[in-house]
Amino acid sequence: xxxxxxxxxxxxxxxxxxxxxxxxxxxxxxxxxxxxxxxxxxxxxxxxxxxxxxxxxxxxxxxxxxxxxxxxxxxxxxxxxxxxxxxxxxxxxxxxxxxxxxxxxxxxxxxxxxxx
Length: 116
Fold this sequence. Notes:
The chain contains no helices and eleven strands. By secondary structure, the chain is mostly beta strands. Strands 2, 4, 5, 6, 9, 10 and 11 form a seven-stranded mixed β-sheet that branches. Strands 1-3-8-7 form a four-stranded antiparallel β-sheet, with no helix packed on it.
């Protein structure tokens, strides 16, 4: 089992920044990749950014150039640095840990609200 806990969300004005953290514990050696997802009210959950065990990253077009995903293997933690935030970035942000054998673990989410 892998436990996933997100933190760092909050209320910020448009143009501001936030850094989300995703701390994992348990069978962390089984984790192969991470993803940050978000879900706004009335919308489907979407992938925002991902990072593999080889530090290959990918981003949704809507956040390219503004968000950066990174990981600290020693701390079993993944980060999402969000700059130049826009009201449309408002959502519940989830961390997903992809594991061996097709398993995955999700956190409870952290709310990001961007005011205009």
